[in-house]
Amino acid sequence: MKVIQLKVNGGVYKVDIEEDMRLLDVLRDKLRLTGTKEGCGEGECGACTVIMDGVSVNACMVMAFQAEGKEIITIEGIQRKDELHPIQRAFLEEGAVQCGFCTPGMILSAKALLDRNPSPSRKEIREGISGNLCRCTGYNQIITSVEKASQYLRREEEEK
Amino acid sequence: MKKRGIGFASVFYGTGYGNGFPDISNAIAELGMDGKITIYVGATEVGQGAKTILSQIAAEVFSMSVEEIIFVCEDTSITPDAGTAAASRQTYNTGNAIKIAAENLREEMIDVAIERLGLNSRVGLAVKNGRIFLKTFPEKGISFEEIALLVGDQHLRRTGSFTAQTTQMDEDTGEGAPYWPYTFSVYGIEVEVDTSIGTIEVIRSVCAQDTGRTINPKLVEGQIDGGFAMGLGYAIYEDLNLQKGKIKHNRFTNYLIPTAEDMPEVEKIFIENPESTGPYGAKGIGEPVTLAVAPAILNAIYDAVGIRIKEIPVTPDKLLIALKEKEMEV
């Protein structure tokens, strides 16, 4: 047993962890943030993608103790008060969600991409989400959504 | 060397259970005290968009906005059986059942309206935006909410049932017409084969899909993209590697499915030729959009390098061996 402190979606948490726990287990089982999904559990599918200190990571491949002192953003943390995040809104509008299992990870990969590249090309978006597998959508409507979200975010920046 | 080729494939696909198997969908339509319409149906939403399309069909019956429809599905304690979300059958089969239930409810509501308004005929009545009224004299009308209040606790609630036409094939000859209806589709695909390493890249793809009538274009586009990705995986990536009944490729490191970088843009053409027995002419497209992808890719490979591949997935090792064999023949 060990106690770690980490920041998740803006809140600071102290969590008892077992040595072999993954960040994914801390999020889902300790903090009950079940929006982060476990797909393959070995870093291939991207369903468990979260943002750690600004970088997208597979929460199944990060040991809990490695998250000590880190800042994590999960799907539960990207909404703005009562409003959807522009990426979430674009996903809904463009039909980017089918079964929905890959969606939280997709949205966080999209966020990590747009945070560092606000105007990606479709090719760059394909590359940016290539670590997130989707069985249903064939990706194209997801790519259109990320394009649309980038427009929303740029417009927000201009209005500021 | 990189060689390009173009291939086409077309399919026709019978939706529903077919072959004489009873294919029945049931639904209930109910008028709520707030004047909203609730649909109860056992249809399952698995991301394909059944909830949206089936709500749209109900909304169309009442000429009201889809937001006014309350859609209750999947809960078997309160919803009637609508069969499986399989065989590309929910839009056509369950869509028909919902349309029938909604129409039955609408007629019942018109009966109440006629009595209340003191009319002597159904002629010239319109149902729109939560009201039933005379087309020639719109002030003469009644809202759904008023109808619900008039009926009170009895609740207007009507069922609808649709049984598809399926006939058994001749057991000896295998001949017959087991399904109704059929959906048609064609893919045209251009590939680039890298003959030095045996990889195949899809450069361009076009899908022409018969939809009967497209109830929701965005959902149909999503089904086509998704179907293409599955067909692409089936054609060149996905290999279970079954050995003595055991799946050897049992993880994503060796069972490869297409990523966003493998997936091309797909140009889509809807062929709208309304199916006379479909709800507003619609047919199912879910599975049909997957089927022609692999044969079109194989035809494109043939066009590019002159080799007929007869086993899928066409992984680089298989293609390199085939290229080598062809070389040695010459």
Automatic annotation (TrEMBL), chain A:
SUPFAM superfamilies: 2Fe-2S ferredoxin-like (SSF54292), CO dehydrogenase ISP C-domain like (SSF47741). Pathway: Alkaloid degradation; nicotine degradation. GO terms for molecular function: 2 iron, 2 sulfur cluster binding; metal ion binding; oxidoreductase activity. It comes from the Bacteria. The keyword Oxidoreductase applies. Pfam families: Fer2 (PF00111), Fer2_2 (PF01799). Residues 2-78 form the 2Fe-2S ferredoxin-type domain. Keywords: 2Fe-2S, Iron, Iron-sulfur, Metal-binding, Oxidoreductase. This is Purine hydroxylase delta subunit apoprotein.
UniProtKB/TrEMBL annotation, chain B:
SUPFAM superfamilies: Molybdenum cofactor-binding domain (SSF56003). InterPro entries: AldOxase/xan_DH_MoCoBD2, AldOxase/xan_DH_Mopterin-bd_sf, N-heterocyclic_Hydroxylase. It comes from Natronincola peptidivorans. Residues 2-264 form the Aldehyde oxidase/xanthine dehydrogenase second molybdopterin binding domain. Transmembrane segments: none annotated. Pfam families: MoCoBD_2. This is Purine hydroxylase beta subunit apoprotein. It comes from the Bacteria. One of its GO terms (molecular function) is oxidoreductase activity.
